[in-house]
Amino acid sequence: FIGYARMLLEQYQLMESKYIAKEKTKKKFSVSMQHYTFAVSAFVELVKQFGMDEYEFAVHETKTYDVIDDVKNFRSEIGILYVNDFNQKVLYKLFRDCGLEFHELLRCGIYVYLWKGHPLANQELISLEDLREYPCLSFDQGAHGSFYFAEEVLSTYEYKQLIRANDRATMLNLMKGLNGYTLCSGIICEELNGGDYCAVPLQSDEVMTIGYLCRKGVAISPLGQKYLDEIRKYKNEDASYR
Angle CA(235)–CA(28)–CA(234) in degrees, nearest 5? Predict the structure, then answer.
């Protein structure tokens, strides 16, 4: 209730300052996401469009549960995460309980993300058996560490070596230092992560559906729509991103 009341109050204050006080208002937008470079890149492109305009934007690259909680409690207008056959029943119930809706943006196969010096980097296809002797890297989900909240698919697989990390920079360092790998959507952005990494298809029938969370019954703002349009551009991106 307080979250909705706060949203209404902020909208009223914006209308009052624009149409009564005739003040120039800052553009505001906030998004929370799992650790996706393309979602950060879309945010960068959104910000670039506003040049010297006054704005107050926020981006939160965080844990799965926090993405949901941020949208539920109005800290972010939009949340970016994925569902698949394994986690969707649990996550959809949580979305409903929180008064949220999930909308599909992209559907992706599963890729192995590793650095270009990795012994498997030049293969056209990688199996889980090929990866057995290398450490799997996973984003730590903190107190909400259920398999259903994992950012990586195949979260119940018994990995011989598993390392959990909190942020993307650490993950990239572990890839280089330990020949580690993680499982991802295959959509990578060299302009943010650099050109030292690649994504190779995993031998698997698993599919990820990446989408956005929003509050049920609340229209997406024009800024939110522009941000989603930037993400949708990756749907038919050139293979250089993969």
Answer: 5
